[in-house]
Amino acid sequence: MKIAVITGAGQGIGRAIAYHFAAQGYAVSLLDSDTDAVCESLAHIVGAGGLAMHYVGDVACRADVEAWLSQTETDFGTPDVLVNNAGIARNRSFLELSEEDFERVMAVNLRGTFLCSQNTVRRMVRVKRPGAIINLASTRALMSEPGTEAYSASKGAIVALTHAMAVSLGPHRIRVNAISPGWIEVSDWQKAGIARAPHHSETDLAQHPVGRVGRPSDIAEACLFLAEAAGFITGQNLVVDGGMTIKMIYAE
After folding, report:
1. pLDDT of residue 252
2. So what's the pLDDT on residue 206?
């Protein structure tokens, strides 16, 4: 039995990743800070015949991370795959961004990725199990809009952390890669009560050379590729954005 542990699995991209891995036969362990959301994800997977467990906690808290992974080992065993998906944004004007908001974004997005990775790898190494780690970065690591300093800084740091970890963990047969999603529409992948049907204008679609906005399943499929079929790929940042970041835009 293959085991995948996924953070931020209650809603959006994380929920899609959890569903996708479960559908491929993985036992999935879900971590999220939103109880209602992660319970919905769990119920869907189990209802579809999948094997899943959940833990409510904060990726930025070492005690929560250790408790989650310990429970995962008890229920399922040592993970084969870790997907560090959990992330937040607190976009503000640069002149108004508080130190507290900056630090919280860095804590969840960057420290959370580090804590989950370190604690998962310790378990993999202890049982001499090869593995794969996939870190969710963002095209915000490569390009920006005003007011995204905290989020962009955290995602840029995740890209750097990814290649550093790949070099350090290679001798343990653990591959580490990042995915940088572009515009992924998640409004219909939220928990009950806030989910809504998406709507995109022709201009929205035209910004993407592929002719559409991204779907959470696009990222889930990329995660599965990096986990299973990419044995000679490590330390890389895979941009999954429908070509948006390669398209020249001219102001009129």
Report:
1. 61
2. 84
State the pTM of this model: 0.96
Helix H, strand E, coil C: the string for the chain is CCEEEEECCCCHHHHHHHHHHHHCCCEEEEEECCHHHHHHHHHHHHHCCCEEEEEECCCCCHHHHHHHHHHHHHHCCCCCEEEECCCCCCCCCCCCCCHHHHHHHHHHHHHHHHHHHHHHHHHHHHCCCCEEEEEECCHHHCCCCCCCHHHHHHHHHHHHHHHHHHHHHHHHCEEEEEEEECCECCHHHCCCCCCCCCCCCHHHHHCCCCCCCECHHHHHHHHHHHHHHCCCCCCCEEEECCCHHHCCCCCC
Each domain of the chain, given as residue ranges in start order, spans 3-246
* Rounded distance between C-alpha atoms, residue 231 and residue 238, angstroms: 15
Rounded percentage of the chain residues whose pLDDT exceeds 90:
91
* Second-level CATH architecture of 3-246: 3-Layer(aba) Sandwich (3.40)
Note if 151 is an active site residue.
Answer: yes
Q: What is the pLDDT of residue 56?
A: 98
Catalytic residue among 19, 55, 151, 250: 151
Q: Which residues of the chain have pLDDT under 50?
A: none
* pLDDT of 170: 98
Instruction: Give the integer Cα–Cα distance in Å for 128 and 78.
Output: 10
